[in-house]
Every structure is written in C-alpha cells, then in structure tokens.
Design goal:
4-stranded antiparallel sheet, Rossmann fold, 7 helices
Length: 238
C-alpha cells in the first residue's frame, strides 16, 4: 500500500536567467514499510525533496500525498497537527532541547499534541535503542551517537505513518554511524515504520531496501534492493 506519493513535484527559486530548479517534476511512490534512501550530491535537490515530503515547505507546483492526505491542501494549523501526528523527523543536528531531560525530549511531541504517552510502546523503543539508563540525563551529557538515538526515539514515539531522516549520521564517526543506522533499520522493522533517509553516502544507502538517486532536481535512478516480499534487485521504471 502506498504511504507516500508525489506527482510532478516542482520547487523553483527565482525567475528568468537566475531561476534555480531545486525539484523539477519529481514522481515518487513509497510503499508502507519500506526503508528508502534518497542519494545525491550537495545541491542535487535531496534535502528540498525531504522538506516537501514532510510539509516543511510548500512546492511551486505538484502534489504530495502522505497517508492518503494531500498535505498542500491543508491550512497552516492543520498541516502542523498532521505533521506532528503522522511524520517523524530525524535531523543531522539532533534538534534536542538542551534544558529538557532525555525522557522529556522523547515525549515532547506527544505533550505538544495533548496526547497520553503509550508507556509500553515507549519502553520498547527505549530498550531497543539502549537508552534505559539515560532517561534522566540532559542532552549535553550524552555522546553524539546517544543524542541521535534520542532523536530516533522522539521520531518513533508518536507512531507516525512515515519517518524522514535528513543525513542522520552526518555528525557521527564511522563506527557510531553503522550502529545508529543499524538501530534505525531495526526499529523500522520492529515497529513497521516507513523510513525515507536522505544521504550523500552510497555505502550507507546500501543498508536500505531501496535506493533513489536524484540529480539536478530529478530522479535519475530508482533501484529496489529488497521490497520486503522476497523479490530483490529490481530496477524501477522512471
């Protein structure tokens, strides 16, 4: 079942000779439960695509559908609520609140939404990510890898339809990078999360089920390594 879809998605900046086409007609479909990596060099449009998918910015034209909802049709307030409930974000810079404890950072999206935390679900996430002994710590008392684990837990706790990860290991060393990506893949499988990860690192992309290459605002290659049905190594027509 499709959980995310774009149609002729465009994002242009400027006009005339100075116009920049950050996205230039992107058609993309992500199935529920997929772990997809969007790969591209700096300036290729991959981060712009992530912002469009997460409703963090509006497109020049085209459509984004998340969990059956055309997000650009929503007003600002409804989009904020939809984003909070249906989309989990993991950023390279972690975006943790320094004066809040690990536990408080994890449950912050739920509290902002006025919803009760599912303690059993939270405990499972915390256990898998190895944060049981860190819940009372402040972010500044954690290593980079531990802070990224907190960010992953925060993204998962709302049980979103999709998790968007923007260069989630960009600030980590190689050993911690492999560990965090392994945990992200594990939690995606454990909690049936759909994950779209932006990266410039081809090696990291190999951990995903599907690799989508973007250049100059266009998808140039879409390769399914494992579509979770047993089929593998399949080129997707674009």
């Amino acid at each position: 079942m499709k959980i995310l879809e774009t149609k002729d998605l465009k994002k242009y900046y400027g006009s005339g000779d100075t116009q920049v086409k950050a996205l230039d007609g992107v058609d993309l479909s992500i199935e529920e439960g997929e772990f997809a990596a969007v790969v591209g060099t700096s300036g290729s449009g991959k981060s712009t695509l992530l912002h469009m998918l997460g409703g963090l910015d509006y497109a020049t034209s085209g459509m984004v559908t998340v969990a059956g909802k055309k997000i650009f049709d929503l007003n600002e307030n409804d989009l904020t609520i939809f984003r909070r409930r249906q989309i989990g974000f993991i950023f390279q810079s972690y975006n943790l609140v320094p004066i809040l404890s690990v536990y408080e950072n994890i449950v912050l999206p739920m509290e902002l939404d006025g919803r009760r935390v599912d303690k059993n679900f939270l405990n499972r996430i915390v256990q898998i990510l190895g944060l049981e002994q860190k819940l009372d710590n402040l972010p500044g008392q954690l290593s980079g890898g531990q802070q990224q684990r907190v960010a992953i837990a925060r993204a998962l706790v709302t049980k979103p339809a999709i998790v968007l990860a923007d260069e989630p290991t960009g600030n980590l060393d190689s050993k911690t990078t492999q560990e965090v990506l392994g945990l992200l893949k594990l939690t995606g499988e454990q909690f049936h999360q759909t994950i779209v990860m932006i990266t410039h690192n081809e090696a990291l992309a190999q951990l995903s089920d599907r690799i989508i290459h973007i250049e100059d605002g266009r998808i140039v290659n879409d390769y399914v390594r494992n579509d979770r049905t047993g089929r593998a190594d399949k080129e997707v027509r674009i």
